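Q: Got a minute? One more chain.
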Amino acid sequence: MRVTTRTLDATGHLRAFALRLDGRARASLAMARRWGRIAAMAPDDATHLGPRVYRSPLSAVGGVIVLVVGAFFAVDTVLRGSGPTLWIPLAVIVLVCALAVTLWIRPALAVDPQRILIRNPFRTIEIPWSRVRDITSRYSLEVAADNGRRYSVWAIPMSLRARRKRLHHGGLHDPRSAGLLGGSGRHERQFTPPPQENHADAVARDLREYWAQVRPAPGGGEVRARWFWPAIAVIAGALAMLLLVTVW
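A: Always. Here it is, folded:
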């Protein structure tokens, strides 16, 4: 009798354990089906296009070094100089630092799903994607808009060696003819330049892939180009101070 009772108890425990496993398996299957339906509802080409910023790291580092050295010489000049020996070096330091910020630190190229923002030394250009007509890197990185103008990007220079190679080989083919803009794939990929590709070509290729993925709204605003007056004012002021102190 005891053996029979123990056998029944063990059978009951096994049956309860099997029921619990079956319940968990069914719950997991239901959740898998649910997530499967959610994944099926998401389009294959859905990608998140975040903002990107392109600049020359060497130029930025060089500009920061110039600012640090300029600050050191400015403090030394203030502590030791007087009269013309104070104002002339200060004017030169301000002029050099202003040029370093304007030419090396400020230039950048920023993109987001709505526009391209080009920050050149003395101008800022905003181009909505709906107004972009071409992105090329034949002799420098350029963005062509539907107003008939082409805007060069100061932040992505092309070396003289790369230009000579480009002139020797006759430029590049239009990458859109190879299907970069008309292809069916819309997945964002991290770009890595081929061994023979220069930095401007790599950025241009990445911009074209980004352009192929955005869906610009009709209209989308106008192309806006404006002068960067703070840099112009500081450089003009430093030149005026240098000229005034030298003549005076």
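A: Residues 1-8, 28-47, 171-195 have pLDDT under 50 and may be disordered.
Q: Perfect, thanks.
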